[in-house]
Amino acid sequence: MKRRTFITMSSITALWVLTGCGGGSGGDNGMSGGGDNPSDDTPVKKGTLPIPELIKGTERSGVNHYDLNIVEAEHEFFEGVKTNTYAIDSTYLGPTLLLENGEDVSLNFSNRLQEETTMHGHGMHVPGNMDGTAHQPIAVGATWSAQYSVDQNACTNWYHPHYMHKTAPHVYQGLAGMIIIEDDEIKALDLPNRYGIDDIPLVLQDRFFSADKTRLDYSPSTMELRMGYVGNVFIANGAINPTFEAEDKEIRFRVLNGSNSTVYDLGFSNDIVFKQIGGDNSLLESPVSMSRLVLSPGERAEIVVDLTDEKGSSFTLHEYRNDQTFLTINVSNDATEFTAVPSTLAALEPVDASLAVRTRPFTLEMTGGIFTINRREMDMMFINETVPLGDVEIWDVTNKMGMDHNFHIHATHFRVIERNGSAANVRNNEKGYKDVVYLQGNERVKLLVKMTDYTTDASAPYMYHCHFLEHEDNGMMGQFIVV
Ligand code: C2O
Ligand code: CU
Ligand code: CU
Questions:
Q1: Which of 4, 31, 193, 392 has the highest CB neighbour count under 10 A?
Q2: What residues are paired with 177 via a beta bridge?
Q3: Distance 252 CA to ligand 2 centre (A)
Q4: Which of 438, 480, 443, 440 is nearest to 463 (CA)?
Q5: Which domain, by its residues, includes 265?
Q6: pLDDT tens-digit series, residues 245-302
Q7: pTM of the predicted model, to two decimals?
């Protein structure tokens, strides 16, 4: 049986033993006291929040090129211990790519690993053959380029591998990075936008480590594949409870749930109220005030926390489901520039379900012990859905299981128009354009979907899937073409 030590950030020396349930020990992740693993008191590396490098690309004949290397690396999560990782021009994760609406880009990914992988632009509205799915593998030693003209509004997207059956382990080793898309509209708003100062990327994840901490331990049991592979070390931008020295002003966090299968219930330890200004694929029409933010795997939220009157205070970004700390924030610096989040952020198209010409049902369920959608397991040679270009459709997604799932659609963004039978149940912070929607056990959502601009054939289909990576890798995914 696997023995795992739950690390709490306040006292790193060890505390809970999470009993893996794959070894016949029953179904609950029962916790009991203990901690007899000799490396349990390995001190974490202390330090400030790492900010991934912001890359703008290099212009070559009218196209902005982003030259990126996918590499094997070593990263210091724990003091003096080198952990083997995968990364993109870094030692864990990759740089943040800054893209401008309307620009022509070429994201050139060179695979310097010893195995094939892929690189998908999550949330990107691109042609099927530029999507970076399992149909566009990057051979060892090869370079694959995603070339397109950026054609979407300002938002926070991300990139990560999408290799058949191996998305989860590849992401787990460190392959993920953020994409920031800017447009003229967002630049006109008085939002914090000094990257690394008051505009902060936050890639939130959780991981298990091998006992000697030299490896990230991706070895889910059957039960963990189903219930979620929730690690015992929570990390922000690849660091364990780092500190962020903030100016006493509005601070914007671009929060990405980059975990494999953990739903995060986030809030600040001082219960400060913050504003969500953007969701997966767009700004919200107006800021939504909240003190807790639930994000399922793959979802993003841009939030603004006003620290103007907080000089000298110190608090943490906490995850309340698992009682873990992601980040400590010290309000230690004087503001050098002020911002004021406007009360109106964007004018989104009105949601009009009567425009829909058909409804497409999707059921998330277990079929013969396998994760399926509409009772079919993912098959790269099978096209599950054919969607006419330009048609407005309702995608009616039902979670037939008691456990959590979510639903992600490639190529497009959607509006959530109903949750559990009523528009009134759609949360205020999910009323922008989204590409992932969270479904708790037995929930049902209706999405207003429209495929635009790009048709694609069976050689480069798009995908929809549960973004709990263990579920995605084990069947809960389907393919569609646009005609
Ligand atoms: Cu985040 Cu199919 O991807
Ligand atoms: Cu995606
Ligand atoms: Cu799932």
A1: 4
A2: 159
A3: 24
A4: 480
A5: 199-333
A6: 999 999 999 999 999 999 999 999 999 999 999 999 999 999 999 999 999 999 999 9
A7: 0.92
